[in-house]
Description:
It is a single chain. The chain has helices spanning 17-30, 45-49, 61-64, 94-97, 107-116, 134-142, 154-172, 194-207, 220-224, 232-235, 240-260; strands spanning 4-8, 35-39, 75-76, 82-85, 123-127, 145-151, 180-187. The protein is an alpha/beta fold. It has a single domain, classed as 3-Layer(aba) Sandwich (Rossmann fold), CATH 3.40.50.300. A seven-stranded mixed sheet has the order 3-4-2-5-1-6-7, sandwiched between helices. It is globular, with a radius of gyration of 22 Å.
Amino acid sequence: MPARIIALANQKGGVGKTTTTVNLAAGLAERGRRVLILDFDPQANATSGVGLPKTDGVSLYPVLLGERRIEDVIADTAIPRLSIIPAEVNLAGAEVDVPQMDRYLHKLADALRPLAESDRFDLIFVDCPPSLGILTMNALTASDAILLPIQCEYYALEGLSVMIRLIERIRGSEANPRLEIEGILMTMYDQRTNLSNQVVQQVVEHFGDKVYETMIPRSVRVSEAPSYGQPVLLYDRNCTGATSYRQLAKEFLKREAARNAPAAPPAPEAPPPAADTTPAAG
């Protein structure tokens, strides 16, 4: 079965997108999945978040231009079964160069297809930049689904509305009609505030079971971990943030199992009532 490609995207920055990419991927790798992070943000925060340096030329930029093979830019991490395609600042040049090429919206999809079909990975997570530029559009065109992290604050609802409209446009076009919403993840949740609870309530009312039951709380440990080049699952295994991301990985796999379960056969039709053969009176 080809690797499932999931983009983590939100036009708004600071919503926990990269933090979720790194820690969800690490949690799934802990549970035995072979996971690839594709750092598609020139800021390269996912790259440094798993302890790798930002190295000129080691990113998807030369791959998109047809100058390198995608296999040549895959790097291992300190976490078993977790690999990454790093990013670096030159990746920003793709915003200028890629639109001048044929099939410019499909450059990432074309590059990823052989890798996804190679049985090397079970899951590929694409960490998108906080914008709706050519990199994000390529990621959404290449992906099977999108995971939307949103912060528990009012303005996050506006950003979510923009992303939903964008997904509908992509799905309704020839760019990627198979794109679906993998899930909506509430981040930086503070159960002590009315605002957090109100935002969660509104999102659940609109999107129902698309919203993960797991919510990621505000956590100093989660914020500290990237500066040490580690997912919080390694930096402080027992903190609330690590526990939440492990729970998210568990919920993610539960949803995956439900999606892959064979459909129940239709119930057999009831037999027609027997004909009445009693002779008529008289």
